[in-house]
Write a structure and sequence with these properties.
This protein has 7 helices and 8 strands. The chain is α+β, with helices and mostly antiparallel strands and 248 residues long. Bound molecules: zinc ion (ZN).
Length: 248
């Protein structure tokens, strides 16, 4: 049987001398592996559609085994994301989050569109740290660990929010901050921006401008939160952090 679908390539691994197994994230079927026969040959028509970040339409033979690629049409090549090492590192971290938090063949439209719009933004030059925080917050939601960012997690106050508690799972107000001695003392900009990043739809994201120190605290808070609630290690995040230090 032939089946036709659109998908974003996560990675391809060699299989035999000239074939590859391509991991594709699709809206309809979630993550699936496809056999791309002959894709490593120089003149293969599949070469362009087995590169990471590529969005393509795939036509596959499906039967009892792994679907075999029959035809593919490139939709978005996303060259820039592969030629710029830092952008590649950001994208690789997003892939790792999605790969670990969604099982094989678990479709998730929201995450699929999040990733597609996120990669478009990454290519267009939108602040990659802001995009990464949006992806992290969304993926925490998917995993069932959405931090409480609209009120104090202890007393539900919506004003004077000053701290973030990893252990309590969200903001703490001035009065409650003592319940967690390890709570982060937040910059006012972080208190303002964090809930916005949790709510915003990526396709509606316009120009964003966040100060470096604000970006840094947003990253520290969410990295600590992810380390507490999601099981790592997040290898690609470590690589990304090393790259950022080198190029800062
Ligand atoms: Zn409180």
């Amino acid at each position: 049987m032939l089946s036709k679908f659109e998908g974003i390539v996560f990675r391809a691994k060699d299989y035999g001398e000239s074939n590859q197994i391509v991991l594709v994230f699709t809206e309809q079927f979630g993550k699936i592996s496809l056999m791309a026969r002959g894709s490593k040959k120089p003149k293969s028509r599949f070469r362009a559609v087995t590169e990471p970040f590529t969005l393509a339409q795939f036509i596959c033979f499906t039967g009892s085994g792994m679907p075999t690629l029959s035809q593919a049409d490139l939709i978005k090549p996303r060259h820039l994301l592969r030629s710029d090492l830092l952008l590649t590192a950001y994208g690789a971290y997003w892939f790792e989050l999605i790969d670990k938090l969604l099982s094989e063949k678990e479709p998730h439209s929201l995450v699929y569109r999040l990733l597609d719009h996120g990669l478009d933004h990454l290519e267009k030059g939108t602040d990659p740290d802001v995009l990464t925080r949006i992806i992290e917050l969304n993926m925490l939601g998917v995993a069932g660990y959405q931090p409480v960012l609209d009120r104090c997690v202890q007393c539900s106050a919506t004003t004077d929010l000053t701290h973030f508690s990893i252990r309590q799972g969200g903001f703490l107000c001035k009065k409650c901050r003592s319940v967690d001695g390890h709570a982060f003392s937040l910059q006012p900009a972080v208190v303002r921006i964090l809930p916005l990043l949790q709510r915003i739809e990526l396709r509606r994201l316009g120009e964003v401008s966040v100060k470096p120190e604000t970006n840094q605290q947003l990253e520290s808070v969410l990295s600590a939160f992810i380390d507490e609630y999601l099981s790592g290690p997040w290898k690609s995040r470590q690589i990304l952090q090393q790259f950022k230090q080198t190029w800062r």
